[in-house]
Amino acid sequence: MTPSQEAGSGLRTAEIKRRHILLKALLVGVVAGTVAAGFRISLTHAESFRVEWLAGLTLPWRIAGGVAIGALGSGLGLWLVRRFAPETAGSGIPHLKAVVLKQEELRWARVIPVKFLAGLAGIGGGLALGREGPTVQMGGSAGLLVAKVLRVKVGEGERRALISAGAGAGIAAAFNAPLAGVMFVLEELQGNFTPVVFVASFLASVASDVVCRVLTGDAPVFPLPGMVAPGLEVLPWALVLGALAGVTGVVFNRSLLWSLDTFDRLKRWPSFLVGALAGAVLGLAGAFLPGLTGSGGTLVEQSLAGGFAVKVIAVWMALRFLLTMVSYGSGAAGGIFAPLLALGALGGLLLGHWAHWLLPATIAHPEIFAVLGMGALFTAIVRAPLTGIVLMVELTGQYGFMLPLLAACLTAYGVAEGLRDVPVYEALLHRTQRKAMEAKAAANEAVATG
To answer: How far apart are CA 346 and CA 418, in angstroms?
Structure first.
């Protein structure tokens, strides 16, 4: 379209780009949603098989079986990552941030199969990691796949917009949360708002959500049909919960980096052996307490139902925290969304029980704090408050939690920022870049001295 035609059409350049990307974004959503649904279904079957099989064994055999399946799955998963696509380690979200910033290349043809199989082996074997990291990285890769198939030109930003849209589609498919997918792209992955990225992310997230709902079910991930929406009396406690979550988020982020540095000392070990060691630890824990391992969805559901006694919540939190560090530190493929949601739900429920004990007439339902705890801890760790708030509303299907969620999430954000903690994905990206520079410097030094 010539400049005169553009003026005559009543469309600005940005609007023309938006129209040009519509069908491409929808296609990205369909592809990303199909991959994510396949991963979600496969992982659900793998986790169900592991739990049911171990439950049918006597204790000595359950211990041996748990250790064996954990070691085999995690060892295989980490071997796949290190052998074929090292960028698929962890959640993969920092890698996508680097791709969007033009700092790294995205090898979609390797990322999709390796992330799928490695995530399925590791998380299915019992690692305390989530499916959302893999679906985000595979979704971004689906965006580049569509861009290459449709011969989208390099350098005009459209490819990066489709990659970002695919990442948002991954979030939408992982949690049945299309709005959270859009918010995640704008707030975390891109860090700014542009009309083209917004439109592409919105369309891809909605299309992905529709595909995933058709294939996996239409209900919210954590429905709360009988829970009463909290009133204004909860707000002071939401502020307290937000402050505690802010501190906990800082501890989580720094512990995660420490765990990665600790496992780095085992870099010379065979990758299968490192993964098997982490998987064996998780398998041993899962033999006694199956709910501690895997993605943690059962922990969240029990917390939302108030199904934990006050005396054991802190113990479950501590154990789940340690197992998450072991799982992620190993370098296996898997996300931290689900683990941190489980920790937030447990912590929120614990505070809810305390509030109920102090003010039984005012705080009648301690389990409502599990929802607030998830949103607050997510915000403290990822530092994306809008995404956290929208995600909780879509996960539970309860809009009535909006006001206390705002209070808890914004307080958590303020506390974590006040402690000068770097958001988790930014910290992980900086760490990866630093390690790459150190490796390059070491290689140059070896050449110079050799």
So the answer is: 24
Please state, in angstroms and rounded to a whole number, the distance separating the CA atoms of residues 94 and 430.
9
- pTM for the whole structure: 0.91
Residue 167 contacts residue 189 (beta carbons within 8 Å): yes
Judge whether 348 and 373 are in contact, CB under 8 Å.
yes
59 lies in some domain: yes
User: 110 and 42 share a domain?
Assistant: yes
The single-letter DSSP state of residue 177 is -
Distance of CA 286 to the CA centre of its chain: 22
Burial label for 431, CB within 10 Å (0-12, 13-18, 19+), is middle
| Residue at a domain's end among 216, 246, 268 | 216
Instruction: Give the whole-angstrom CA distance, residue 48 versus residue 293.
Output: 12
17's CB contacts (< 8 A; 6+ apart) are 158, 195, 196
Helix (H, G, I), strand (E, B) or coil at 157: coil
Burial letters 119-153, b for 16+ CB under 10 A, else e: bbbbbbbbbbbbbbbbbbbbbbbbbbbbbeeeebe
Helix (H) or strand (E) holding 232: none
Q: What residue numbers bound the domain in which 267 lies?
A: 232-432
Asked if residue 444 is part of any domain, the answer here is no
Residue owning tokens 């989530």? 130
Diameter over CA atoms, the chain: 79
Give dist(CA 161, CA 74) in Å, integer.
Answer: 33
DSSP summary character for residue 437: H
Tokens of 41: 């279904």
Tokens of 343: 């920790």
Phi, psi of 317 (to 5 degrees): -60, -45
Residue 417's pLDDT is: 96
Give the chain's count of helices (H) and strands (E). 18, 0
Q: Are residues 271 and 195 located together in one domain of the fold?
A: no
Torsion of CA 101, 149, 29, 137, to 10 degrees: -40
Residue 275 confidence class, pLDDT cut points 50, 70, 90:
very high
Res 442: pLDDT: 73
Q: Are 250 and 185 contained in the same domain?
A: no
Q: Could you count the other beta carbons within 10 Å of the beta carbon of residue 215?
A: 15
User: Residue 218's Cα: distance from chain center in Å?
Assistant: 21
Token reading at 286: 């899962």
Q: Give the type of residue at 255.
A: S
Q: 215 phi and psi, to 5 degrees?
A: -90, -30
Which of 4-8, 14-18, 122-126, 334-338 has the least mean pLDDT?
4-8
Higher-confidence residue: 305 or 318? Answer: 318
Indicate if the pLDDT at residue 11 is higher than 70: no
